[in-house]
Amino acid sequence: MLWHKSVEVQLQSYSQSHIDVSIRLDESEEWWRCTVVYGEPDMSKRTEFLNLLRRLHRQSGRPRLCAGDFNEILEHKEKAGGPMRAE
């Protein structure tokens, strides 16, 4: 899809844990944002990752799709191996 000439993509920012782009389809007037993330697996660095998401959110009032691996679980039964985490 992103290489089709009816789709315009502009890179906004990137790091080891995210790629953020603006996308416009078929020369429409409306742009939207797509942010793909890989969440910080180290709990001591999780706040830094969440602050990045907050900064990205504040940068644009456009509609945004945020997808990827947040390295987060809802329940302990989802986790296999390693130490237990506080819920």
User: What is the N-to-C succession of helices and strands?
Assistant: EEEHE
Q: Number of DSSP helices?
A: 1
The class by helix and strand makeup works out as alpha+beta
Q: What is the beta-strand fraction?
A: 35-45%
Topology:
Elements: E1 7-15, E2 18-25, E3 31-38, H1 46-59, E4 64-69
Parallel strand pairs: 3-4
Antiparallel strand pairs: 1-2, 2-3
Please, could you describe this protein's structure?
It comes from Sesamum radiatum (Black benniseed). This is Endonuclease/exonuclease/phosphatase domain-containing protein. The protein is of the alpha+beta class. It has a domain of 51 residues. It is built from one helix and four strands. The chain has a four-stranded mixed β-sheet, with no helix packed on it. β1 and β2 form a beta hairpin. The chain is elongated and about 50 Å long. The mean pLDDT is 87.
Give the structure's gist in a few sentences.
By secondary structure, this protein is an alpha+beta fold. The protein has one helix spanning 46-59; strands at 7-15, 18-25, 31-38, 64-69. Strands 1-2-3-4 form a 4-stranded mixed beta sheet, with no helix packed on it.
Name its key features.
4-stranded mixed sheet; 16% helix; 87 residues; alpha+beta
